[in-house]
Each structure stands twice: as structure tokens, then as C-alpha cells.
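Pasting as-is:
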Amino acid sequence: PGQREDKKGIPFTGPAGKELDRFLGVAGLKRADVWVSNIVHCRPRGNGKPNAADIAVCAPLWLEREIALLKPQVVVPLGGVAASYFLADSLGKVRVEEVSGVPYEPEETGLNYAVLPIMHPAAGLHKPENLTLIAEGFRNLGLYLRGVDVRARDRHPSPRYEWVQHPEEVEYVR
């Protein structure tokens, strides 16, 4: 969690949260449709990525209990740390750029739910060239939830995504 999230005790309340809301729209979802959590529930020292010790202490106390209570059909880890947490045992080293938008079924992971990792929404804030991969991941999430086979990526080509500051100035081509 970032500074805002740590202060409020609510995940994704800062700029990344606004991006998350927009990307959920790409999937046909709203924030009220999903449960949002974190691998760790407190801000890591130096506001960096959580390390293995942070995760080992925090995830069993919070995240794993939340999952046990909610019994989700799909878990969507956002970013490399979260993707690795859920997939490293079954896939080995995980690069979120390679697994973003790809569903992994319970038979593949040994978990009781599917895992569909997506690049973290903040990655688009830092590097706009990540926007298309992030949007594709959320688009695949929406399709997957509707029962579409998204593993065959060639059958579902993605448009290029860019957020515009002033949408009223955009001319739409029909």
C-alpha cells in the first residue's frame, strides 16, 4: 500500500485506485463488484515493494484469511509481487509482463480458484506504454468472466489504449 492507502486503511485510494476504477470499466466491472485487497496490509519500509519477510508475515494473517472467507472463483493479482505470490509455486519465476491477462485454472495452480494476473494499474502511470497491456489484461478478465476462452490471444486482438485528459476533444470514428 502507498501512503494514502496506509493512512486510510483502504487499498487503491490514490492515483492507482483511479486507474483501477477505469480499468475495471474495461472489464465491464465496477469497484462495488470486486473485493480489493493487498498481499501486505501495511506500507513496507521506504515505501518499496514488500520483501519475502513482509509477505511471509502479513499474507497468512490477512490475505489468506480473506480468501478463505470469500471463496472467490477468480483471484486477480495486480503486479509482479502479487502474481508471483499466487503463481510461483506452479510456474516458477513469474514475470507479470508475460502472464498478464492469462487465466490459470485451479488444476494448473493447485489452488481452489482461478488466477488471472494483470500488470499493476500504477505501471500505466509510470510508463504510458504499459497502458495497452494493462487494458488487455482487464479486457481478458471481462471476457473470461463471461466464459470466453482468452488463452487464444490471436482470436481476440486488442486495440491500442490511451487515456485522454479531455475526452470531449476526441473525434470518434464510426
